[in-house]
Write a structure and sequence with these properties.
- The protein has an eight-stranded antiparallel beta barrel.
- It has one domain: Porin, CATH 2.40.160.20.
- 10% of the residues lie in helices and 59% in strands.
- The chain is mainly beta.
Length: 164
Amino acid sequence: MKKTILFVTIVLMGFAANAQYKQAIGLRFGLPSGVTYKTFISDKNAVEGILHLGNGIGLTGLYQIHNQAFGVSNLNWYYGFGGHVHATNRNFGTYGNGWRVSGRNTRPLDGSIDLGINGVLGLEYTLQEIPLVFALDVSPIIGLSSDGGTYVGTASSLAIRFYF
């Protein structure tokens, strides 16, 4: 049974590796951290959704434009914009990395709602041998909180996705 499962896994990974990268799902580490899903809506344009947990639950949506980087066939740089919504349940200050910069960093914000806009600039490398994509990006962020606080900052993330 174990040999059969291993064989099926290898065959499926082989088919996936030969597939073109149209959509991918994986994990994102940094800010925001969470589960990421990305799909291309054309050859160069993609949308990404990130479900993030940490001090509550949130959703970030990004529209991205991809171009080849440095003449390397599997390396793209991308830029774009989007927005986020996040329901908090702890202090803003526990995020760190400038995600929340406000005079309210030490005040508990249980139950507040954050809304904001995001930019994104990054590099993405697609492996051909196995169906994995690695992405590293930075994001400027501006937002408002339902408690009256504001925040401006930058975040950086590493994403690892399985493409199909």
